[in-house]
Fold this protein.
Amino acid sequence: MFRIFSLVLAFIFAPVTVAEPFWGSKASEPVDTDPKKLKAGQFIWKGHDVASGAVVALVSIPEQRIYLYRNGVLIGISTVSTGKRGYGTPAGIFTVLEKDRHHRSRTYDNAPMPYANRLTWQGVALHAGHVLGRPASHGCIRLPSQFARLLFDVSTLGMTVVITGYQNQTLKFSHSTALSPIDSEESSLVNMSDLTPTEEFRWQPENAQEGSISIIISEADQYLLVYRKGIEIGRAKISMTLPKKHLGTYAFILQEGEATETNPFLNHRWMSISIPAYSHEKTVMLNASFFEHLNIPIDFAKALNSLLTSGTTLLITDKPMLGSQIISKASASQPRCVKGNCVHGQGTQIYVDGSKYIGQFKNGLSEGQGQLIFPNGEKYVGNFKNDKFQWD
């Protein structure tokens, strides 16, 4: 009798196992399906075409699509749902910081977020979820369950994820945009000091000794910036004398080849990745002729060349990169309180870049519930801490 009683108690108090939800299609659409015709929750997978090599993901917020490349070859396309209005998914260059097969949200009622690839410590991640064919999340990137599983199987810690926003997201605001390097712990622009008039370049690989490499070349600034795992390890003044035409913005993945000592890009094979809403042409060829217009300090080129490996990401743009840092710092140091109590209480504060915060303050910083409105109409609504929006 005691044995039966014990079994009954064990059954009553045993933890309840809740079945994991499954979202979206269970199988890939035919590989020749037009990606534009994918319906919400559908995906295309051809990962068996390339069995090995570096993996890079490109998320297009305007298209609500993710494109997955392995060794420069497109192996997967899927519909996604990014952050809805007020919880916009940050655009930028990220790396996978953590993988969690059975992740659950600590912010939203223990909601299941399986096959999670974390991109920021503030909660932005790629994970399985309900894909509606439009922005619908609290900042994360929802994927169909089966595609999320396939991505989880091929992703690695340090994998590069490029998230692109809309063309009207300019670089002058302190929030992240398509070409802004992201501090994964703070979800904000990485603070970078400019080169002095006598400095040709700065090389500090000790800042990050492992992880994937991302390179940004700005024609407007005539600068080259190098990041490893989202942390700047080098920058150089360059000269870029391209024919007078609108360059636009393009992303590339390094495939193979050997570089020269004076130009780390020559002789390498760079595979073009389309960036919707940024590219002004369907494709652009990075051949020797293109790079012959790019002059880089020799010692910097040698140092950079030693780090280039398959999967390195390169972004080339005619947009300025450096002005955003100056304005970001100025806006943080010169806010103007126009209504209420912007020290301890409820108030409205205007920043130099034109953005406006309405909400709660503590010790002169946004703290608590509020909304941050940018001049272009983009709005972040929710919880703020230490002047930073808290992603789910």
Summary: The longest strand covers residues 365-373.
